[in-house]
Amino acid sequence: MKFSKQQWAWIFYDWANSGYGILVVTAVLPVYFKAVAQSAGVSAADSTAFWGYANSVGTLIVSLLAPLLGTLADYPHTKRRWLNCFTWTGILLTLGLAFVPASGWPLLLILYVLTNIGYSGGNLFYDSFLTDVATNEEMDRVSTTGYSMGYLGGVLAFMIFLAAELTHGFNGWLSSVGIAKFSFVLSAIWWIIFGLPLLLHGKQVFSVSATRQPLKDGFIRLGKTIRHVAQYREITWFLVAYFFYIDGVDTIFTMATSIGKDMGINTTSLMLVLLVVQLIAVPFSLLYGWLADKISTRRALLVGIVVYLFICLYAFKLKTQFDFWLLAILIGTSQGGIQALSRSYFGRLIPKDNSNEFFGFYNILGKFSAIIGPVLVGVVTQWTGQSTLGAGSLSILFAIGLILFWQVSKPRQRR
């Protein structure tokens, strides 16, 4: 499939914000924040708690605002404006992280919350642009290519950071603090360079009728959608199924390093595992797009859910480092595919003119689904004393998601 300029611009936005995702959210800022906070006299337990609170606050704000923001962006020529608003907020404040003094841990935390709002809000409008850049027949390939390029972009950004880390700040040019701040600047520049095509030239094809009172009308439309949710049977069934299985997907990835640590795997090996998972996800995200063309998106998604169900069941007998590597590879084969096809499948189910509004609900469930899984793992781990059994308990979420997704009928194009 040959992609258009609009499609390439959309695909490269995933590459653009991948630097933020892996450097700021996952690899560097959590470690840097704990070091800064503890040097200021904050205990390890408190710094971990503050970091958790910051992530929860940012997620909660975007999740609650997502449907309303979606209704506002469904008016003509507004989607790109909202995308720019949130993206540039995220970019500029990510750059601002590099200028926070080493003693200013509260400001570091506040800026992180704001950058996360910019990042998550931008992704809402980015996801909904899929309906504008691709037809129903093109969505699977475009969405899976976006995820694939996102993983590749994240790996390359991370490797640049690792080069700075392993050469001790490019042969002493940067201190240990300077290396961390370098990663924040790198994330912002990465975001700008590869995100500009969509930010400048993204074209909104579908929209609702313009109004003189967009905010009031947005609330009215949102209320109507909620009251008449029964009219969207396939969408409702899918969102409930998505809530459960995507919770399992996110939890496995976020809890993997903790489980690896409990198994005695060292930090260097865990970083290598993270890189391998990202690299494997690049071709396998594309493979899921090909598979969707061959056997249908619905069946390809069922394959992904079954693979994750097997991963969780195998976790019950997780004992050796080989077992951990095997599960990591299996996660890499299906992580990007199941996320990308969920997005394109949903894009085909929803009315195109209201795509932002419906993607608002999609993002809400994606965010709030990150609550059940970690709690389930934590409770089972504390109860049994084995984190591998905690990971295995996630099979319940995938089993529920599989049963519910089976109830979703084949997607039909809606207006």
Automatic annotation (TrEMBL):
Keyword flag Transmembrane helix: yes
TM annotation in the entry: 12-33, 53-75, 82-100, 106-126, 147-167, 179-200, 235-256, 268-288, 300-318, 324-346, 358-383, 389-408
Predominant cellular place of this UniProt entry's protein: membrane
Cellular compartments annotated: Cell membrane
Keyword Metal-binding: no
PANTHER family named in the record: AUTOPHAGY-RELATED PROTEIN 22
Name of the protein in its database record: Transporter, major facilitator family protein
UniProt organism field: Limosilactobacillus secaliphilus
